[in-house]
Amino acid sequence: MDGRPTWVFGYGSLIWKQDFPFLEARRASITGWARRFWQGSHDHRGLEHDPGRVVTLVASPGQPCEGRAFLVEPEVFDHLDHREKNGYERVAVDIAFDSEVVQGVVYRATENNPAFLGPAAPEAMAAQINRCAGPSGSNRDYVLHLAQALREMGVADDHVFEVESRVLRG
Predict the structure, then answer these.
(1) What is the pairing mode between strands 101-109 and 6-10?
(2) Cα(127)–Cα(52) distance, integer angstroms
(3) Which residue of 38, 76, 122, 148 shows the fewest CB atoms closer than 10 Å?
């Protein structure tokens, strides 16, 4: 980074939980990625021996992933890097707004990180999510907050809403 403010794309908890300062927030999207509950959370929404499930991005050619982008000063990355430490890497991405595209970054947990859980049946994910909690709260609350934030933005995400539906059924 060159010392200038940088856009950070949020597709999970960054959408609804901003515990960091930012200069501007805008609805945004990135293309070629899908949001999935395939990342384990040993540090926030679960425990080492019983990880919760949080979202990461998986390659999905041509598919848009909608979220929010935040313009942050360089020093904010110390906090964000710590917050997203459990398997997430900061990668460059093109972030699209209504009428422009800017270069920014996104935190993505890849398949080769130790906390990656991968796909599972929605019922199995829901059972795990309903069971797990960690220092940042229940895994269930994470899912419900994300689904609500997406609805408030007018974003339809079949995967998130399917997992939410199964979580609510208990």
Answers:
(1) parallel
(2) 10
(3) 148
Residue 131: give its domain's CATH number: 3.10.490.10
Exposed e or buried b per residue across 29-65, where buried means at least 16 C-beta atoms within 10 angstroms of its C-beta: bbeebbbbbbbbbbbbbbeeeebbbbbbbbeeeeeeb
In a domain, 1, yes or no: no
Does the active-site annotation cover 84? yes
| From 48, 66, 75, 84, the catalytic residue | 84
Count of domains forming the chain? 1
Domain encompassing residue 84:
6-169
Q: What is the pLDDT along the chain (170 residues), one digit of tens a residue?
A: 578 999 999 999 999 999 999 999 999 999 999 999 999 999 999 999 999 999 999 999 999 999 999 999 999 999 999 999 889 999 999 999 998 999 999 999 999 999 999 999 999 999 999 999 999 999 999 999 999 999 999 999 999 999 999 999 98
C-alpha distances in angstroms, 106 versus 39, 58, 81, 138?
A: 15, 12, 11, 24
Residue 18 lies in a domain: yes
pTM strictly above 0.90 = yes
